[in-house]
Amino acid sequence: MPGNVIKLRFILNEQPVLLQAHPGARLLDVLRCDFGLKATREGCARGECGACLVLMNGVAVNSCLIPAFTLSDAEIVTIEGIHSLKSFADIRKKLPDCDVYRCGFCSSGMQVALAALLLSDPEPGKEAILQALTGNLCSCGSYRRIVNSVVERSSRKRRYGRRRVERS
Amino acid sequence: MQPFISDIAPKRSLRAAVFRAPFRKGTVTAIGVPILPRGYFCVGQQDIPGTSVLSYAGYSLPILVKSKVRYLGEPLLLFCGPNAEVLGRLSSAVELSYEEQPPVEYKDLSGPYREAQIINLAHGDVDLAFSLAEQIVEGEYRTARQEHYYPDTLGAVADWDGKSLTVHAATQDPFGLQLAIAGCLNLPPRKVRVVAVPIGNSTEGKLLSSFLVAAQAGLLAYTAKKPVVLVYDRDEDLHCSPKGPQFQIRHQTALDQDGGTMAVRVQILMDGGCYAPKNSEALHRAVHCAWGAYKIPNLEVTGRTVATDFPPIGPFRASGLSQAFFAAELHSSRLEEIAQLDPFNWKRENLAQAGRKEGPASALAVLEEVTGLSDFIRKYSAYAAVKKRRKTIDQGTYPLRGIGLALAYQDGRGWSADLHNLEPAPKSSAMKLVLDRNRRLRIYTSLVDSAMGIHGILIHRAAELLGLDPKKITVQPVDTREVPDTGPTILSRVVAVALPLLEQCCWSIQRKRKGFALPIEVRRSLSAEQQHGLGGDRHAQGKRRAGEEAGDLSWAATVVEVELDPVTFQSTCRGIWMAVETGAVWDRTAILGMLEGEILRCLGSSRLLGYTAAAASALTACFAGDLVPSATELPEIQIRLLESQSAEMKGFEHLPYLGVPASYAEAVCQATGLYIDQVPITAEVIQQCLET
Fold it and tell me: Average pLDDT of B32-47?
């Protein structure tokens, strides 16, 4: 790579990584180009649509706005991590299926936003889910289907859990 | 989930960049291209082996220009090479000499612009009716340019292997794209293979625009003999892709002593942009729907496309229709006020056909359904009473609330067929079905899956006709080497052309199942003439829309209720109600989901759509958040699909675009007591109306 580069050491999907990146690079570029994690998508590229959301130290952030030089020692989890890591197994079960999203472009950002919410509130209500999705835009308008799906899955889990407790 | 275009990057592929004109109008006198490092390539207009202008459905757009620049950001040169950063440096090192000319901008579209297209439509004696009129009501209505705002930006990946070109592109018309690229590279179409990737929610933005970016990528791959990835960034996409046109529509209505309509005169001006189309489907649609859904005894409509110095226009969902209905419905709200009738009763009276008392049953049914669902009449009367009591907007403590009702129809057999009919040589459409030994059905079609759920509709219908489990039916990946040409992916065209094709294939399979061993392969096609018969003749449709026969129209009535902040005039949508009659309902959940999504999109564009004539030179007014409402801005939305006797499904994707803007504007007018005659309606627009 021509020009100056900086060395970065951070944790990506629970794996320590070392990377040489251009100082002007964004976290989004690093994930997509250097690590081939293409499910994190570039939408508006100005932090408005939420298609590029990732978890940075447990908080959902727009990776198009995060400069690479701020990554030192950070812990990043992408949608690929949410779908594969054991630590997200419970959260995964509560996320909506792919067919809830219509065109699917916003789905990874939406799932990261929902995962961030479910980390702090395992059984969120409709209002909390809507608030969590404020920074995510869906040009197909699938919000209501997404919210209903998460509420249904969380409550199903709760009902199932209660039944198990009663039986025991 | 299939990858989007920005997710595709073949090994050893080159990155690409477009060098664009940094000025709005003028002539390039010299271009100095920097010395290219090894492995880097540059292509100009003189390097195009075939035609350098793309044409589609009456619209045209140059792939590259050599000297005459007509819009800011018009492409001049293409670069490709292994490193994007180096490409950026090469673009900045281009030495450009040019003579800039001031763009011509008049106050409005009625200024002395060059006319590119004129359409006239008339019946009855309008002059006589106007001379005898008791009262003449006039209004001028404006709609801004429309941004598609598809979630993924335009892009294409092209690879030339020495014999043929393979292009991956997010396009709604893979075979149209194949012809366009073949024409540009002067190759036989069979040497161009197009593989379609998902198009997102494109609102017909992946037609002409997708051709442009794919032709540019194809040119570079043909020159470099390597795979090339060209993906526009968001700014580039917003500023340099064709938009939906702006309109200015003037209505004059002659009324008799009782407030009845004697005649209507409509003048439509469409901004054709810098490459004004000479035969645009948007103007045709606007002219033939200019009077809305009502009975008009004497009518005169003149439609003009004017060539301006604004960026180019292209296909847009419901283009022409949404503007025509907006103007007709908003004008009818003025007539309702004069007739002292509420919108429901005025519409019901004026829907009546000549010689009959009753209007089209479907229209009346959707009107009655939506008014009941939204409690429209009670709310309208309450807000009207408040408006009467409050002489100025800041008087009293009443909330600024209003409610609007709009009625619209869409030709159920596919206005979008017009797009195809405007081609110089309309093509036939075909589809292939294969039922294999495991009783799994494969559908071969060039229709691309989209947010409209097109593949879902095909699967659902085939499952119903053949009695198969939908999970055993797949639509094959769209590759021009594998699938037949079914035409562009537009929902109403799917209804008009693709569904009859699918039904013919399914019936044929049913017959063959009795005597033939599996697998069974069936292919059916419709000639251009047969499709024309299905879609209907445009001028015949125009006559029909005047109110005589309306059996194959889908109807929608929309109610929007808004509340405005009395200080900032920011609007909150309290609810949207819609009743729709769209023929047979095969997949209720899918149709409701699609309509809800389109309603939200229309709400965003009614309030905040960015490209006004004034902002066109700045080209910076458009942001994602302005166009798409967020989760917390969700209003209450209730959609009622009416049961229909029809065994066939009708097109319905335009209906939210025809009803929401007008009813939103009517609601804001009632809330503020102002006559607002434009969309988008921003807080600034309300403030300006108050000042004037």
Answer: 96
Least Cα distance to B556 among B528, B583, B582 occurs for: B582
> Could you report the per-residue pLDDT of B288-335, keeping only the tens digit for each?
899 988 888 999 999 999 999 888 999 988 889 999 999 999 999 999
Contacts of B150 in chain A (CB under 8 A): 139
This prediction's pTM: 0.90
Residue A35 Cα distances to A4, A18, A20, A46, A74, angstroms: 20, 11, 12, 22, 16
Beta strands in chain A (DSSP E): 6-12, 15-21, 53-56, 59-62, 75-77
Residues with Cβ < 8 Å from A32, sequence gap 6 or more? A38, A40, A42
Contact between B181 and B192 (Cβ < 8 Å): yes
A38 CA: distance to closest CA in chain B (Å):
6
Does B39 contact A at CB distance below 8 Å? Answer: no
Reduced to 3 states (helix: H, G, I; strand: E, B; else coil), residue B48 is coil
Confidence of residue A133 (pLDDT cuts 50, 70, 90): very high
Domains by residue range for chain B, with CATH:
5-102+153-233 (3.90.1170.50), 341-413+549-692 (3.30.365.10), 417-535 (3.30.365.10)
Q: How far apart are CA A51 and CA A43, in angstroms?
A: 6
Domains of chain A with bracketed CATH? 6-167 (3.10.20.30)
Instruction: Write the CB contacts of A87 (distance below 8 Å, at least 6 apart in sequence).
Output: A14
Q: Using only C-alpha atoms, what is the Rg of chain A? A: 17
Tokens representing B278?
């000479």
Asked whether the ipTM of the predicted complex exceeds the cut of 0.90, the reply is no
Instruction: Please judge whether A48 and B4 are an interchain contact, meaning their C-beta atoms are less than 8 angstroms apart.
Output: no
Give tens-digit pLDDT for B174-232. 999 999 999 999 999 999 999 999 888 878 889 999 999 999 999 999 999 999 999 99
Q: Which chain A residues are closer than 8 Å to B601 by Cβ?
A: 139, 141
Backbone torsions φ then ψ of B351, nearest 5 degrees: -75, -25
Probe site for chain B from A103, A114, A143 (most B CB atoms < 10 A): A103
* Residue B630 to residue A147, Cβ atoms within 8 A: no
| Percent of chain B at pLDDT exceeding 90 | 55
